[in-house]
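step: validate -> pass
step: tokenize input -> pass
step: predict -> running
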Amino acid sequence: MNNLQPRSVWSHFATLCAIPHSSLHEAALREHLVAWGQARGIESVVDGAGNLILKKPASPGCETAHGVILQGHLDMVCQANAATRHDFERDPINAVVRDGWVVAEDTTLGADNGIGVALALAALEEPGLMHPPLEVLLTVNEESGMDGARGILPGTLQGKALINLDTEEWGHFYLGCAGGVDVEVRHACELQDVPPDYALLRFEVSGLRGGHSGIDIHLGRGNALKLLAEALRDLSAHTDVRLIEMRGGTARNAIPREAFAACALPVAMASNIDEWVRHRHEAWRQRFAEADAGISFACQHYDTLPDQSVTRADLEHLLAFLDIAANGVARVSDDFPGVTETSSNLGVLGLTQGAFKATFKVRSLHDAGAAALADKLVARASSYRFQAWKDGAYPGWMPNPASGLLVLCQRVYAAQFGQPASLQVIHAGLECGLLAASHPHLDMISFGPDIRGAHAPGERVEIESVARCWQLLKAVLQELGKGVADA
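step: predict -> pass
step: emit ->
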């Protein structure tokens, strides 16, 4: 990557790939960046939440311009294919260049948001760049709770304009984003003995594409957990299913790609199960031929037999809840054609020794919409006497039609590329909503290069769009350095 252009941006991104930085484990990367800044005379501040703020004075002649904040997050979503052995707390990301993209083929790449961080760092050291006072805000734990943005105290940031570098579609200016809330569901299932004339089977859904539970939720991809529950519900209608264990998903904000269930069936049924498995496999291959062509449904037979399973009553309640629990697009926006307004994703599920837990990520462009859908999930779970509650709510970012920063960015984009940028809102959680709550004076915009497959193995970022994004960022900073917009 070090030979790609712009070299400074890709050099920083290569460093980020070399230093593990999963959510809640950003300390090593943060310490590296503090040392990097000190070596260049850049002031660094680590706040009480663990966020890093790098500060650079204005270029000569730009001292009277309003300060600008470049913002991204240090952590990344860590996902790997089942056959890939990768320790995200120790191993570097193996990134390769392929067909105009930088890609991690078997894990997530961390372009979300490593490429945004790299752009901001490159701006701090770009020779000859005329810029206003700069703050680079790099938050922690964005992907699993937005704890860093939550912890920023009012008055921490001095700039008046903020450029968020955490969006994934070049050619668009993002003016708003969805808020969100998690829904946690728990239940202690009763256990019963497994009859000795039963056989142990393991059913597995795999080969799904997964993806970002906000940006990709409208694409019709399969959710491995929902599909596995669908299969078990069908099977339990024809025979006695003793559910022993069920597990799938690794992050509430990623669409689950794989899931399995260990079940005991009567020996006669177990010995003839393969035809049912093949039939469901083929049915799913047809159903997801375009959205998830790699889907697979398989079964393994085992000689050992566990002692206990959940009761029939609990099995029926679990499968009924998973069947009716909202998942996918709940509403499309009336204000922004083609944009998802409200959605839910069943992201993580575990059932072991009778202890059931599931986590949903609910999103909406309207905070009331997220709260309403989350309340519905809680009510559904409670109707089966499950424990359920909401957690980790964060606000959306409402568009500001009077944004001076938007006017400036539109003008600069048109001058640089000969056409206007599209204006959008994004069905994903940017930290702008939380930052607006603690710093209501901020004028904000978000843009970034083309990233595909965020939150899933095979994540990639387009090289040419990174160069264009860098070109735009430099031009915008130079205009802001002139004090052109009262942003």
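step: describe -> The first strand starts at residue 43 and ends at 46.
step: cleanup -> pass
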